[in-house]
Amino acid sequence: MRLIAATKGLEVPLRLIGGTAIWFRCPSARRTSLARSYGDIDFVSISKNNGALSRFFEGHGYEPDKLFNALHGAQRLNFTDPLRGRPVDVLLDRFVMCHTLELKKRLTLDDTTIPVTDLLLTKAQVIQLNEKDVKDIVALLLDHAVAVGGIDLDRIAEATHNDWGLEHTLRKTLLEVQEALAGIALDEAEAVLVGGRIGAIVETLDIAPKSPRWRMRARVGERLRWYEEPEEARR
């Protein structure tokens, strides 16, 4: 929060993404059943500001990974706080893992994090969910209504309109989270609430208009891999 506040007068948008963003936006992420550890801090910004971002973080005591930043600085920047051993990863313009989410136009919609819906999309695009991913998704679904300003169904429809692969992964992920609810310490009303929000998202995927590109890719289905391996996406 200190770093984000320090960028306000610099015209360099800097927003939290990832687990720490979900911790900030979701009180449920701090309760025992959904709590988890955080290995680093992830931000997202704009690639045209990578020089200004480097100067900003160095000015706040962060040391750059010079080799990594020289090789990948158009997409990502890495820094470390040497006093606390705290790594910082700054994504630029987009989130790239199993699928790609364009975020450049989403950065000014919230003052501290990317929008809640985009946080959900970055978590739900994972092919092989781990326990942290499941907890983060449940916290988002538990704390945010399906509505504009919360989990925005129009944004989900827009993100998947042209991307069968992303939609296919979202469906698989949501089903896996639904099945995992029985192993998470939620009361009955909370489980019903989360399940209902999952149902609303799936219904949106069912009825949302699809592009010709989406329909062509849907014909191929799982016969061709529809996602990137995270290691490949980071190259």
Model description:
With 235 residues, the chain is an alpha+beta fold. It is built from 11 helices and 7 strands. It has helices at 2-6, 19-25, 50-59, 66-72, 116-124, 131-143, 153-160, 164-180, 188-207, 212-220, 230-233; strands at residues 15-17, 41-45, 63-64, 76-81, 86-92, 94-96, 100-102. The strands form 2 sheets. A 5-stranded mixed beta sheet has the order 1-2-5-4-3. A two-stranded antiparallel ribbon has the order 6-7. Helix 2 (19-25) runs parallel beside helix 6 (131-143), helix 5 packs antiparallel against helix 6 and helix 7 crosses helix 9 (188-207). It starts with a helix and ends with a helix. 33% of the residues are buried. The mean pLDDT is 93.
Summarize the structure.
The chain contains 11 helices and 7 strands.
**Major sheet strand order:** 1-2-5-4-3
Integer-rounded radius of gyration: 18 Å
Largest sheet: 5 strands, mixed
Order of helices and strands: HEHEHEHEEEEHHHHHHH
Overall SS class: alpha+beta
Number of helices: 11
Distance between the termini: 29 Å
What integer is the average pLDDT? Answer: 93
Low-confidence stretches: none
Report the principal-axis shape.
Answer: globular
Strand composition percent: 5-15%
